[in-house]
Amino acid sequence: MEFSMKKGMLLGFIGIVCFSFTLPATSIAVPYFGETIVGLGRTVIAAIIVGTVFIVKKQPLPSISQFKSLLIVAVGAVLAFPLLTTYAMKSLPVSHGAIELALLPLATAGFAMWRGGERPSKRYWIASATGAVTVIIYAIYLGLGQLHKGDFALIAAVILLGLSYAEGGKLSKEVGSWQVIAWAILIGAPFFIIPVGLGLSDRMLDAPIEAWISLFYLGIVSQFLAYVAWYGGMSLGGIARVGQIQYLQPFLMIGFSVLFLGESITWITIVLAMIVVLCVIVGKNADDKQSLELK
C-alpha cells in the first residue's frame, strides 16, 4: 500500500511538471500556428500516437457507462481546456494564467465531492470564495480595472478541467490510467480533423524550431503523456491526496514563464499566488474527515 502511494505521488508530480509547461508552450506556438492548430491540432497529433498504441494492444471497447464518463473527460481535457487556454494566451501573460489556474485543485476537489455524493463543508465554500475573489482582484488589477475575455476563458477552463480530472480519476480505476485520456482523445479527434485541415497554411513552414517543439510538446506530452502520469497517480494514490500536488503548478508555471519567455514577475504576483494556494489547501483539507477519495 505504501509503495503504491509513493508511486502515485511520483506519477502525480511528473504529470504536474509536464502540465506546468503547457501555458508557456501554448504562448510560444500560438503566434505562428494560430488558435485552431494549437488548440485542436494537439489532439490530432496525440490521436495518431494513441491509435497506433490501441491497434498494437488490441484494446477492448469501453462499456456504455464508461463511454458516458469518457465524454465528460473528452469535453473538459480534450476540447474545452486546450481551446480556452489557447484563446487566453493570445492576450494574457503566462504568470497571469498561472494565478487563475491555481484554483484547479479546488475545482477538482469540489467535483470529486459531488461525484462521490458528499456535501462540501462551509470551510470549503469560504476557502473557495476567498480564492476566487483573490483571483478576480488580481485579474482586474492586471487588466487596469476590468476583466478581459481571456480571464473568463481561463475560469471556464478551470471549471471544466476540474470536472474532467475528477471524472477521469474515478474512471481510471476501472479502465486504467492511460486508457482514460487515450479514449477521450480518440473520441474528440475525429471532430477536429476538418477544422485543423482548414487551418493549415504554407506560412507554418516558416515557424521557428521552438514553435514546432512547443506544438509537438502540446500534442505528445501535454495532451497525452502528462495525463497518463496524472490519472495513474490519482488511481494509485487517491484523487484528493495526489491532487494536492497541484499546489506546485502555479509556481512552476511562473518559473517556466520567467525561464523560457523572459516574463518579469512582481512581488504581488508571488504574494497572490501564495494566497490562492493557501485557500486551495484549506478548502481541499476541509473535508478530510469525510474522505474525498472516490470509491
Largest sheet: none
| Multimer state | single chain
Structurally, the number of domains stands at 1
How helix-rich are the residues, as a percent range? Answer: over 70%
- SS elements, strand count: 0
What is the tally of helical segments?
A: 12
What do these coordinates show?
- By secondary structure, the chain is mostly helical.
- It has one domain.
- The protein has 12 helices and no strands.
- The protein has helices at residues 2-20, 22-57, 64-88, 94-101, 104-115, 122-142, 149-175, 177-199, 209-237, 239-243, 249-261, 267-285.
- Helix 3 crosses helix 8.
- The two termini are 16 Å apart.
- The model is unreliable at 288-295 (pLDDT under 50).
- Belongs to the EamA transporter family.
- InterPro entries: AA-Vitamin_Transporters, EamA_dom, EmrE-like.
- It comes from Solibacillus silvestris (strain StLB046).
Summarize the topology.
Elements: H1 2-20, H2 22-57, H3 64-88, H4 94-101, H5 104-115, H6 122-142, H7 149-175, H8 177-199, H9 209-237, H10 239-243, H11 249-261, H12 267-285
Keywords:
295 residues; globular; transmembrane helix; transmembrane; Permease of the drug/metabolite transporter superfamily; EamA_dom; AA-Vitamin_Transporters
Structure in a nutshell:
This protein is mainly alpha-helical. Helix content is 80%, strand content 0%. The radius of gyration is 18 Å and the shape is globular.
